[in-house]
């Protein structure tokens, strides 16, 4: 750089104006920068340049075209007024109803959570039934007839559907109680509290006259329930098997059904 | 501008678009039609300038006016109404330009049908003027167009235009300079025998 540009500035000397690139900068860079700052601080924003004269005729024409637009047509006005007066349907409805919607959603979630928490564990129920099926059977006990050889206890667990199972098996062993005459074996599981003395018509021996208040006479043995059943008991009866748990009695009885099916079914 | 508080009896109502807009914002729906009639030409010409397309400008003006109408409820009264309006229109036109660009890329090769000329000699002449203006504006980039429209056609101050467009004044100067240079080139190219001073 030249000495001229970097050289010292005489004390009190006014920095010369910046002329732009290509011009020599006589004051030192520091002074020059200060002068530039002062100039910018005090400067008013310069007015915009006027359009070039050669552009003026075209500009006049364009301004005329630009500003000469007519007002809205009747059709445009009608369309606008219709649209402007028509409120967006969804938004105000949401604004009005969102507290109710939020409350309903929260209630639904709560119910869902509660039902999930209170629902019985299907795995435990299945395990318990499988354990009952595996429990020691007496010769000639009805439960031996119930499942038949090779029956998967997982599959033969009592279903909620009261419809008797379809199909029959001719090779099914006959029980000594003479139920083989075209009659199928059916299981009736019921809650003691729900069972009426009469029960469903012809559904079970219990319903057909057995006294539900004196089941002890029919009991043959009482043994501990499988662990999956928790603090309950399993009682073998002449006519089936009984579970007792927490004051609830579940009786699985074999009963002849009018159907031709010999498959065990649950009612 | 006359104040609505000093209205002389029998004189035409002095409400300009700004007063009507504030009334609308306060819930006076009766002013809607008058506000629309006053604002449509202004908004439409802004759209025409920003979009450089007459048919698009008609649609955009309707959309912009609806947007303005809905925005009036939350419009800050401390703010200058024309500046707010111009900003809303500029933003809407930018959106439309972006959408049009995407559409154009998708439908490349399909020519846009020309707008049907309306009946009436005067209207036809105006359409020709507008078409000439649109051809000139189409040479500019969207930003150059916005600056040129607000400075050279709307004749706003630089600071006001820069504020409405959300850019620095220095950028505005640069865009304006570029826009004028391009238009000058166009005039030179189209003028028989060159540009006459």
Question: Biggest interface in this structure?
Answer: A-B, 31 and 40 residues
Low-confidence stretches of chain A: 1-10, 139-210
Query: Average pLDDT of chain B, to the nearest integer?
Result: 82
What's the SSE pattern of chain B? HHHHHHHH
> Helicity range of the residues of chain B?
55-70%
| Dominant shape of chain A | elongated
CA radius of gyration of chain A is 49 Å
Please characterize this protein's 3D structure:
The complex is a heterodimer of chains A (267) and B (197). Helix content of chain A is 34%, strand content 14%. Chain A has a six-stranded mixed β-sheet. Chain A contains seven helices and six strands. Chain A has helices at residues 3-6, 29-42, 56-67, 74-85, 90-118, 122-134, 142-147; strands spanning 184-191, 219-224, 232-237, 240-245, 248-257, 265-266. With 267 residues, chain A is of the alpha+beta class. With 197 residues, chain B is an all-alpha fold. Chain B is 67% helix and 0% strand. Chain B contains eight helices and no strands. Chain B has helices spanning 17-25, 32-51, 54-71, 81-106, 121-137, 142-153, 158-165, 169-190. The termini of chain B are far apart. The relative contact order of chain B is 0.09. Residues 1-12 of chain B have low confidence and may be disordered. At the A-B interface, helix 3 and helix 4 of A face helix 2, helix 3, helix 5, helix 6 and helix 8 of B.
Provide keyphrases for this structure.
heterodimer, A: 267 residues, alpha+beta, six-stranded mixed beta sheet, elongated, disordered N terminus, B: 197 residues, mainly alpha, 8 helices, 67% helix
């Amino acid at each position: 750089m030249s000495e001229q540009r970097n050289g010292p500035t005489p004390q009190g000397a006014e920095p010369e104006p910046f002329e732009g690139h290509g011009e020599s900068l006589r004051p030192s860079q520091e002074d020059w920068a200060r002068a530039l700052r002062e100039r910018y601080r005090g400067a008013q924003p310069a007015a915009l340049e006027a359009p070039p004269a050669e552009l003026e005729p075209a500009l006049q024409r364009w301004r005329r075209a630009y500003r000469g637009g007519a007002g809205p047509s009747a059709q445009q006005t009608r369309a606008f007024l219709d649209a402007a007066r028509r409120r967006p349907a969804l938004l105000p409805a949401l604004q009005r109803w969102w507290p109710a919607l939020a409350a309903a959603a929260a209630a639904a979630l709560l119910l869902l959570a509660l039902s999930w928490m209170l629902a019985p564990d299907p795995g435990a129920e299945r395990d318990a039934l499988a354990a009952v099926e595996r429990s020691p059977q007496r010769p000639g006990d009805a439960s031996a007839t119930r499942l038949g050889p090779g029956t998967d206890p997982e599959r033969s667990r009592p279903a909620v559907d009261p419809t008797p199972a379809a199909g029959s098996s001719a090779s099914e062993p006959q029980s000594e109680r003479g139920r083989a005459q075209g009659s199928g074996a059916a299981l009736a599981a019921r809650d003691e509290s729900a069972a009426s003395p009469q029960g469903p018509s012809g559904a079970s021996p219990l319903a057909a006259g057995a006294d539900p208040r004196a089941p002890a006479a029919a009991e043959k043995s009482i043994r501990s329930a499988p662990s999956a059943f928790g603090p309950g008991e399993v009682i073998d009866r002449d006519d089936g098997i009984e579970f007792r748990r927490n004051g609830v009695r579940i009786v699985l009885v074999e009963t002849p059904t009018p159907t031709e099916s010999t498959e065990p079914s649950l009612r | 501008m006359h104040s609505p508080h000093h209205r002389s009896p029998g004189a035409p109502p002095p409400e300009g678009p700004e007063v009507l807009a504030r009334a609308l914002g306060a819930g006076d729906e009766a002013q809607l039609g008058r506000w629309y009639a006053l604002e449509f030409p202004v908004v439409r010409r802004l759209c025409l300038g920003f979009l450089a397309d007459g048919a698009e400008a008609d649609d955009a003006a309707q959309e912009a006016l609806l947007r303005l109408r809905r925005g009036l409820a939350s419009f800050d009264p401390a703010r200058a109404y024309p500046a707010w309006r111009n900003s809303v229109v500029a933003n809407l036109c930018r959106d439309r330009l972006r959408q049009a660009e995407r559409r154009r890329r998708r439908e490349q090769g399909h020519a846009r049908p020309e707008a049907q000329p309306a009946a009436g000699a005067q209207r036809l002449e105006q359409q020709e003027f507008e078409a000439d203006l649109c051809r000139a504006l189409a040479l500019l980039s969207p930003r150059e167009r916005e600056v040129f429209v607000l400075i050279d056609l709307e004749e706003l101050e630089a600071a006001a235009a820069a504020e409405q467009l959300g850019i620095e004044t220095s950028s505005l100067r640069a865009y304006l300079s570029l826009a004028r240079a391009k238009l000058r080139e166009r005039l030179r190219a189209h003028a028989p025998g060159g540009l006459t001073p």
